[in-house]
Amino acid sequence: MKTRDDLFSTSQTIAIVGLSDNPERDSYKVAQYMQNAGYRIIPVNPKLTHLLGETAYASLSDIPISVDIVNIFRRSDAVPPIVDEAIAIGAKTIWMQLGVSHESAADKAKAQGLSVIMDKCIKIEHAALES
């Protein structure tokens, strides 16, 4: 498994599952921060068509480019099918935001060679490495 420093330095594209178009929501703030830090953000939300200057997709399998990190802003019980889809598209890392965890889905992802981070905010972790 990669260190967080390696993860951030080798990743370019972050698909954010459950990204909201409400600027007051944490998912929006995190996406905007990561975009400003130089990452390409891919919104994954079936209710959106565009957000933060990027095309939004209904699901991970609809994304036409490779994804390095799948960042999950959904309830823990919604994680397993997202992990299955992340494995299917060849994502390299599953990142479950603060308050989101699912041990069996994490074990499945790890068994397929993905790095997994649970119950941590990608924005906080990135900012800590930058300071």
Automatic annotation (TrEMBL):
Database matches in InterPro entries: CoA-bd, NAD(P)-bd_dom_sf
Domain CoA-binding residue range list: 7-100
Pfam family name, one: CoA_binding_2
SMART domains: CoA_binding
SUPFAM superfamilies (alphabetical): NAD(P)-binding Rossmann-fold domains
PANTHER family hit by this protein: COA-BINDING DOMAIN-CONTAINING PROTEIN, CYTOPLASMIC PROTEIN-RELATED
UniProt-recorded name of the protein: CoA-binding protein
Natural source organism: Ostreibacterium oceani
